[in-house]
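It is worth pausing here to work through a concrete case rather than discussing structure prediction in the abstract. The textbook approach is simple: state the sequence, then state the predicted structure, then interpret. We follow exactly that order.
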Amino acid sequence: MNWEPLYLMQRRLDQYIENQHQLQKGEKVEEKILALLVEVGELANETRCFKFWSTKGPSEKQVILEEYVDGVHFLLSLGIDLEFMYHSEHTEAYDSQTDAFLSIYKSIEQFRLYKSEESYMALFHEYLQLGLTLGLTEGELIKAYEDKNQVNFKRQDEGY
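Step two, the predicted structure:
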């Protein structure tokens, strides 16, 4: 997959937010990492994969996709801040959603500690593996990202 168009869209959104809030590029890396952790938690909650005590199933796929794409926004934004760009490589799904989520949390922490290109690439790759594990396709991801990007611009205009 060519990620460049999504990075460009994210850069426009980031610049818009930075202008709205008088911020400099890269000023909020730690906050974005925390936001990514929160988004991953919200996503896990929608999948309910860890709720072994409950018989209620996961949220609808569209809800899961929307939560997943929130994380993509932060991944792209972090790459922009640190001048890293993910390049696609072969990705396979995990055997279980729980394993995928636990791996993501570990990768986020590694990235937080090192903020290296290697840790960024590993995190992005793990996040894509999570998406595959959740049954999300590349086409669904792109469409959902584009839709949410427009929503995020509108939210900025409305003082979200």
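Step three, interpretation. The mean pLDDT is 95. Residues 78 and 86 are 11 Å apart (CA to CA).
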